[in-house]
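Hi support team,

I'm opening this ticket because the web form for multi-chain structure prediction keeps timing out on my end. I have pasted the exact lines I submitted so you can reproduce it. The total is 753 residues across two entries, so I didn't expect it to be a heavy job. Is there a limit I'm missing, or should I split the entries? Thanks in advance, R.K.
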Amino acid sequence: MTISTAPASEPVAADAPPAPGRRRAHRPGQAREWWLGAALVLPALALAVLFKLVPLARGVLTSFESSSGFGGSEFAGADNYTRMFDDPMVLTSFRNALLVVATLPVWIVVPLVLALLIHQRSPGWKFFRAVYFVPYTIAPIVVGIMFRQILAPDGPLNALLRGVGLQPLAIEWLNGRHSALFSLVAVALWSFFGLGVMTYLAGLATIPEETLEAAYLDGAGFWRRLFSVVVPMLRPTVAYWSVLCASGVLIWLFPLIYALTQGGPGDATMLPEYLVFLTTFQFLDRGYGSAIGIALFVFVAVLSIFSVRHMFTEGTRKPR
Amino acid sequence: MFRRSLAGALAAGMAAAALLTGCGGGGDDASDGPVTLKVLTWEPGGTEYWKQVKSTFEAGHPNIKLEMQSVPFDKYPEVQGPYITSQSGPDVMANNAGLELFDRRGAYVPLGDKAAEITKDLVTYSGACEGFDTGKTCYGVPFSYQGNVLYYNKAVLTAAGLDPEKPPATWDEFGAACDAVKKAGKTCLALGLSGTFPAYWDFPEITRNYLTEDDIRALLAGKLSWKDPKLVAVLEKLAEITTKGWANKNAPSITMLPDGADIFQRGDAAFAGTIISDAVNWEAFGKALGDDKLGVTRWPAIDPAAPLAQKFSGIEGAVYGVTQWSQKKQAGLEFITWLAGKENGELWVKYGKGQPLNKNVDKALLPSSPAFLKIQELVAQPTLHAGVMLSGPEADALARGWQQVTLGQLTVDKWAEQMQQALERSPTKKQTK
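Hello R.K., no limit was hit. The queue was backed up. Here is the completed structure from your submission:
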């Protein structure tokens, strides 16, 4: 058998599309296929336009309006957007949002570590696999109410800390400027990390056993296996979870804020999504509320876009 | 005789037509079968009272069925807001009298000339009308009277060495009483600062010592600056309540309802500033502590000589109106007219245990509780309620500022600045400036 170094001729596919610029041969079968394809895509397209683009466009339009109470509204130009830069509550809410985003590494790494421990059948892995997922099945509003009691100054958490001699750690979790935001994030993490563990477990199932075994036999410890084998092979899954977390911490915390702190004390746990709600439904300032909502949308989009692009790149990369 | 009957029928027909006209147009009530009215309410007066409302009203109006959507009071704005924004939902709904109602007036059908007729037997209904002026547009019907008092637990005062029959009447006396209560190991004032309760319940009690009725109207109109020394003094006194340690330490992170009220109901606090009707009133506290242990007094006066210091900050309770988008406006009007009537007034007294607004309610039905009788005495000298004059942003800034001042994160001057900013971004007050 000889190996030729000459470039192989391109195979001619029977259904290859015609080269650009070349006049396409008109075949009745092709037209029928095109119409069938369009008919199949159309419902999804209509739903996307109706339920995604139209509300978004409506939100953008409302953000350029000034309204009084629930009465009529008038065009206000960019007033609502310029107002945001002078509104300390808006600035604080976005500053708090950045602080929350800064905790993302914890959101990404903790479930990954736990997932790997479960995947390698650590003692009690079956129990923990179930237990980790349970908090995710509890409605966030219930989680909020639960933790309001757990984190109360005389609540069970502080009682436990005092009981084991950790009196200095028994702080007023929901009363402090920084401790309240930290508590909110910690409760959210407790509530959501189970989903992360499940996501990573699904990803880990795609890694061949022998790869991990080979790393183990080569003497790689847990952390070495995690960062040198698992993370590179799970990049699309990590990226997917990162996008979920990045958007989740900014737009899915509402029920927890509502039940736990209502944005307080003061503005300590005020996040943009809660401010949108307050401004629109309690201050009755729909235009301004929409403007804050659009600013949040852009903030989340910018944050997510890199991960999404990375995810697509990973997902569409051809195997080497 | 026939001519008189015909005239009567014609008059009745014209009255019905006028009612519809006053209501801004005819309804599309179903002509066959009972009409179902959807009523959004936070159930002021309790579930039992509303059960009675439903059964009594339906018995007298076989053509109308009531479908109640009950929402807890502190969650009510969040449920009602989307209905108003989307202009859909209940046929009849409620708001607190005053600015809360005025903010949402676009959602209600103006009563027009019918307002005077519907409310003819009510002691007052100005809180349902624009600018607290019955000569202006009215949007609904109140049937209860509301306001704030200071409830106290006689057993806690006694244990602290205080005379339960002589509760503190001045600010200094209150401070001294709090010191004694704290020494006895109890909380002096049960308080929750999360949410808008501080604005509704505590702010007007301090305000009466510094503002006149004209000032309170200026507050409503957005013409009284929060940097005005009188309002700054009000904020200073509010701050004192928590910074002097009179209230429970976790006040900034808990709500008054249910958390703050729970502290008092458990017997862990000497005082609680809440309301006279609806939830957490004398009846609920009497049940929890015992009627003989429950005392009621006016909030302590900071300046006993101030013109409003010895008055009662009163306001009509929940105001029920017909929604603009309702297709059953006539039935809705029938319902709110009935709410203002004697029959409902008596149900309100009997089951809601509240202060009725209808003048014809049988006095024999009024409760004999000592606390209720004391409240009757206090409400006899009413004045405007400053809490309901605050806009949404102001009420929110008041609560958040108070939380921050309590935690030492904000000075009173900075709080006043934030209040002024809140006033300036209040959509409804901007218009009236």
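A quick check on our side: Residues 154 and 164 of chain B are 5 Å apart (CA to CA). Let us know if the file doesn't open in your viewer.
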